[in-house]
Write the structure tokens for this entry.
Amino acid sequence: MHPELRTADGTPLLLWRPPAPLLAISSGPHGGGIGHRAWALNATVDHLYDRDDPDEHVRELADALGLPDGGTGLLTAVDVRTAVHVTDDGVRAWVTTGIGAHPIWAASPEPPRSVPAVGTVNAVCVLPVRLSDAALVNAVATAAEAKAQALGEAGVPGTGTVTDAVVLLCPTGGPVERYGGPRSPVGSALARAVHACVRAGLATDTSRR
């Protein structure tokens, strides 16, 4: 399954639409959590984006495309046409990488007083096997670790941005994998794929300049 490049209400987006719903874990503003999802999208918004209802915005984009209820969506200031795609041992990852001028450390000495300039690292990954709910949660952590590793290796002074998000999709049936950590079969492939995507994306990230 590969995404379609679409436009809705003048907004470019990548749309993943499997033949049947997949099991997903998502931190997206629309359709977040764990459950079956009929579609996923990653849409580009303006760097000055200031809507306070991103959930509804994604729903509007889905309606414009004629999509049914039951999907999940992400928003990014990065042009989704620059998304990097990497496949590793059956895991397929698409990542849009935008760090902006102000990356943040996850463990900051004090809470930020204001939201830094829009960046966002969004990852949508399709896994080849069914994962348990616990393994899906573990896999989200694995993807975040791989992203942070890539940022550190590139000399970025931070672990990400305040708006990074991830969607992991896997089959709803078949033997269940219990682990999604970086040394599990699926987790290790996921980590390598996300790491490679972020490293490649940083090389062309104009938001850092």
Observations:
- Residues 4-208 form a domain with the L-amino peptidase D-ALA esterase/amidase fold (CATH 3.60.70).
- The longest strand covers residues 91-97.
- The mean pLDDT is 93.
